[in-house]
């Protein structure tokens, strides 16, 4: 009994990407460094693209590309935050954010918020 509207081709690929996505999302929220968060952020973006485009219809492909572009635009904020934090403190540790002052603090916090917008 097959579903004609949504054929089940490539379910192993789907579940593999879903598992990697779940692991990367856990890594994103549990990472203690901005560099780790950046790595997991990019992995979740790639997995989102693969999962959204799973059915390979034109609509799914367009939606996946849109999600990928928005996620990558959002990741620019995380790159900015990581670079600013490292240049100001010499480390990517989230705990170092308490050492920031003035404009650097706003750049890091703003970059993280911008990245969160892109991921949501």
TrEMBL record:
<keyword id="KW-1133">Transmembrane helix</keyword>
<feature type="transmembrane region" description="Helical">
    <location>
        <begin position="67"/>
        <end position="87"/>
    </location>
</feature>
<dbReference type="GO" id="GO:0012505">
    <property type="term" value="C:endomembrane system"/>
</dbReference>
<keyword id="KW-0812">Transmembrane</keyword>
<dbReference type="Pfam" id="PF00361">
    <property type="entry name" value="Proton_antipo_M"/>
</dbReference>
<dbReference type="InterPro" id="IPR001750">
    <property type="entry name" value="ND/Mrp_TM"/>
</dbReference>
<dbReference type="InterPro" id="IPR003945">
    <property type="entry name" value="NU5C-like"/>
</dbReference>
<feature type="domain" description="NADH:quinone oxidoreductase/Mrp antiporter transmembrane">
    <location>
        <begin position="32"/>
        <end position="117"/>
    </location>
</feature>
<feature type="transmembrane region" description="Helical">
    <location>
        <begin position="12"/>
        <end position="30"/>
    </location>
</feature>
<dbReference type="GO" id="GO:0003954">
    <property type="term" value="F:NADH dehydrogenase activity"/>
</dbReference>
<feature type="transmembrane region" description="Helical">
    <location>
        <begin position="36"/>
        <end position="55"/>
    </location>
</feature>
<dbReference type="GO" id="GO:0016020">
    <property type="term" value="C:membrane"/>
</dbReference>
<keyword id="KW-0472">Membrane</keyword>
<dbReference type="GO" id="GO:0042773">
    <property type="term" value="P:ATP synthesis coupled electron transport"/>
</dbReference>
<dbReference type="GO" id="GO:0008137">
    <property type="term" value="F:NADH dehydrogenase (ubiquinone) activity"/>
</dbReference>
<protein>
    <submittedName>
        <fullName>Hydrogenase 4 subunit D</fullName>
    </submittedName>
</protein>
<dbReference type="GO" id="GO:0015990">
    <property type="term" value="P:electron transport coupled proton transport"/>
</dbReference>
């Amino acid at each position: 009994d097959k579903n004609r509207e949504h054929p089940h081709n490539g379910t192993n690929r789907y579940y593999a990407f879903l598992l990697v996505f779940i692991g990367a999302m856990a890594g994103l929220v549990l990472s203690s460094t901005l560099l780790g968060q950046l790595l997991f952020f990019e992995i979740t973006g790639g997995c989102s693209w693969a999962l959204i485009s799973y059915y390979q219809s034109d609509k799914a492909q367009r939606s996946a590309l849109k999600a990928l572009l928005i996620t990558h635009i959002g990741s620019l904020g995380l790159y900015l935050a990581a670079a600013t934090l490292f240049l100001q403190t010499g480390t990517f540790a989230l705990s170092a954010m308490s050492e920031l002052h003035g404009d650097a603090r706003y750049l890091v916090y703003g970059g993280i918020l911008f990245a969160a917008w892109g991921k949501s």
